[in-house]
Design goal:
It is a single chain. The chain is of the alpha/beta class. It has helices at 3-15, 89-99, 128-135, and strands spanning 22-26, 44-49, 58-59, 74-80, 100-111, 139-147, 150-157. The protein has a 7-stranded mixed sheet. The protein starts with a helix and ends with a strand.
Amino acid sequence: MTPYVRQWVAETVGMFPFVDRRVLEIGSLDVNGGVRDLFSEAQSYLGIDRIPGPGVDLQMDAHDLSHQTLRGKIDDVVCLETLEHDPAFWVTLYKIRMLLRRGGRLMLSVPRFEFVHHHPPDYWRFSEEALSTCLLGGFTILRLDSIPGAHCGLGVIE
């Protein structure tokens, strides 16, 4: 994660508080810094990633998120600089929608076209239009920005 994405998340948390909310972070492995500390007022925070390490509470693939007890019970999902590494990102987005309760929010960032990295494998790039229309399609967009290196958005599902 870049410092610009972390700054965007900090500003967004300040604008749309996460007090007493259940937050799930997909792709939580702390490689270049994480955001968990920015959600200190959340009721709970669970970080998942395919790779074990710092910031990961549960090692799992987001495609496996189907547990009935979580369905419709998550208040917020944070997915930062992750979908470009997912060979089937649409499956992850489907699982996110399934887990979010009505009024739940998705905080999402994706790298811009000029920012390519190859570890882990890097499959996709999305325009700002793709973020707003496709990735956050069906969400009411609360915030959408293009920042250095990334497109970022926060949407709420009705």
